[in-house]
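Before our next group meeting I need something from you. Please put the record directly below this note.
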Amino acid sequence: MATIAPPAIARILLCFFVLARVCASTGSQPSVDDGQNFFDVVEYGAVGDGRTDDTKAFKKAWTDACKSSVSMPIMHVPHNKTCLLQPLVLRGPCNSQNLTIQIDGTLVASGDPSAWKCDKKDCRHWIMISDVDGLSGLVIDKCNEVRLSELTFKDSPQMHIAIEGSTRVTAANLTITSPGHSPNTDGIHIQRSQHVLVRDCYIGTGDDCISIGQGSAHLDISGISCGPGHGVSIGSLGKHGSRETVEDVHVRDVHFVGTSNGVRIKTWQGGKGYARDIVFERITVTNSSHPIIIDQFYCDHEHCKNQTSAVQISNVTYSQVNGTSHAKAAVELACSETHPCRDILMKDITLNLTVKGKETTSHCSNVRGRRNSNIFPNISCLEEDEDL
């Protein structure tokens, strides 16, 4: 069962978040009053027992809050209410640029996909928020000036939070969890979005803690605890020969625990575009496999054909990456022969093997760059530069 349970009050300004609790009861529906600024989902018929379908009531409360002419409408999900919601889309634009959804309760989806009441085209996401400026939700789509904070996301059927086609989004103080064996349950996925800030989050999932896709730029990610999961990944980029780009990404102060990867860049053979101007710094790993990895031969199935074109990876810095690797090869840089990775910088890196008495190794091919002397394991393909 997918759950959203904020620890206190979740406020999402200049847009709206998701989920309230709505139940198809025969209670009276509140009238829309231009002066009303508080839209409690219980007044719209929400039951909140975790079993009754509250989707219809939730939609009604959202519609009235979105249409309200007051300056700061508030849609409210009461404390001690658990709302069962079907897949739904909350659409704008809304009259107010300062709509707040205050979630004091819990939002759940059926754990049985066959029980979801939706058209096939609408079943890809549980809750989608679209065409609203200043929003937060499971899917933040084409929105601006968004803040999402102090929420807990648990056991989403797929991605927990997707930020798509949006600008100036902040996600802070979030807790996102799902079993380590659950597929495709990325914690936060970002694509076609710019100026995104993610900070001070605990994420443990069955896929990437944070994944960064096509069209992302000017991202600042910090203060993340990741594990279990697949680490922080840029890509995959360039599938089916497409041109895809990612640039200006800063990842710092991240702690990986028991993850299958640490910081990763992955691209498909045959792709075009670039991944550039990327910084990974102050990274700590504890018993994680592949703490540092660039893979320009990514393939999620067997028999991917060899191709010469590749996404160009350049100007990537790794600084102060320390800890223990579960795998012997702690650093793996596998770049394209025709489009080598360029301007790769490494400084102050110490990655020891979790098992005492053995040493980590590195693998490096088609890489151009520099390193300082404080590097373990040694990365022989990088030129030593004491000025770093």
In short: The chain has two domains: 1-123, 158-388. The radius of gyration is 23 Å. Helices lie at 55-67.
